[in-house]
C-alpha cells in the first residue's frame, strides 16, 4: 500500500488502535501470570505492554493493515 496524505491519518489511527488493544492484552497476560495482585511487578507489566505497542506498530508497517483500504495510482 502506498501511504498518501489522504490515508495517512486513517492508517495511523488504525495502527494506534491496534497497538493499544495489543498492549492491553499483553498487560492482562502479565498480570494474570501472578497469583496475587500484591505480587504484580508493575514495572514488568508496563515494559511488556510498551514493547508490545512498539512491536505492533512495526508489524503494521511491515505487513499493512486490513482496516485501511489499498489505494491505486491509476
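Sequence proposed for the structure above (74 residues):
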Amino acid at each position: 500500500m502506498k501511504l498518501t496524505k489522504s490515508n495517512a491519518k486513517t492508517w495511523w489511527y488504525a495502527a494506534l488502535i491496534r497497538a493499544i488493544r495489543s498492549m492491553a492484552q499483553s498487560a492482562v497476560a502479565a498480570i494474570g501470570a501472578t497469583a496475587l495482585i500484591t505480587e504484580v511487578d508493575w514495572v514488568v507489566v508496563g515494559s511488556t505492554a510498551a514493547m508490545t505497542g512498539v512491536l505492533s506498530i512495526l508489524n503494521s508497517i511491515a505487513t499493512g493493515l486490513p482496516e485501511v483500504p489499498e489505494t491505486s495510482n491509476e
